[in-house]
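Hey, resending since the last one bounced:
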Amino acid sequence: MNPYILVLYFSHSGGTANLAKEICYGVDSVSGIESKLRTVAPVSTETEQTKPSVPEQGTVYCDKQDLSNCAGLALGSATRFGNMASPMKHFLDTTADLWMANSLEGKPAAVFTSSNSLHGGQETTLLSMMIPLFHHGMLITGLPYSEKALKNTQTGGTPYGVTHLGSLGSELSSDERTLARRAGENLAKNVFIKRCSR
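The C-alpha cells again:
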C-alpha cells in the first residue's frame, strides 16, 4: 500500500466536504501517494443515549490510527465564530497520546475551511486549526501566490489554505476547485519529497 495523506474534515452544510473531495483528487494525481478521506463524529448533546460510533451513511469516522499512520494531513472544518467547529476540536483534544509519542512530528500538513458569509472568519479558522498541528510538530504548507486562481478568485481562497464561500449546499467555484486540487497536489509532493530525502 502506498503512503497516504489523511484528508480529515468536519462539514455542516457541505462546503468543507466538497473541498475535501477536491483535495483528494489533487493528492491522488501524484504517483505513489494516496488519499484517505475521513470525517469526525458530531459532538452529541444527548446525555442518556450515545450516538453510533459508525455513521449510517457518508464518510467513515476517523480513528487515531488513521491519524498516526498518515504520511501527511489535510485538516478541514466549517467555521464557527472564527474558529474550528467543536467536533473537530473535540477529536484533536483526544490526541495527546499521539503528541507524547511524537507520532505526527515532521509530517506535512495543510488546512482548509468554508463559511456562509464573506467575513465569516475563514482566515482565523485556518489559523486556529494550525495551532494544534504546530504542537504536534507538523510542517504547515499553504498556497503560494504563484497559483493564478488565488489572485483571480472572487469567492474562497487564501495563502493560509483553501477556503469556500457559499450558502447551504452550494457548489464550489471553478477557482475554489482549482485551488483545492493544487493544495492536495502540493501536499502530496511535499510528502513525496520528505520520504525521498530519508
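The mean pLDDT is 91.

Sorry for the duplicate.
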